Amino acid sequence: MQSPHNYLLTELDGAHNYYEGLVLQELQKQLPEQLGNNDYITDIACIALNNLPPRYIRHTVDMAFYLSPNELQEMLDNVTIAVSNAKQKIDNDTRSYD
Fold this sequence. Notes:
It is a single chain. This protein is mostly helical. Helix content is about 65%, strand content about 5%. The protein has one domain. The mean pLDDT is about 85.
């Protein structure tokens, strides 16, 4: 028998933060030459996502029905800023990402 905890995790498998995809797209746009550097990209993504509000959804297509063009543009602008700020923070860190 499945425990209640495991059942809830299974029920939430389809939920994800809409900002994750937007941050990944922005990373591809801003840092295409770094995409193979997993630690560097992951650290930037984590910092950027932690500075954006969570927006959990089940299906990405649902966002098209709930967002106005202005809301989407505001989200995209916020992602651009969050990724730029996260990159700057990581680049100012003394850690090496070779």
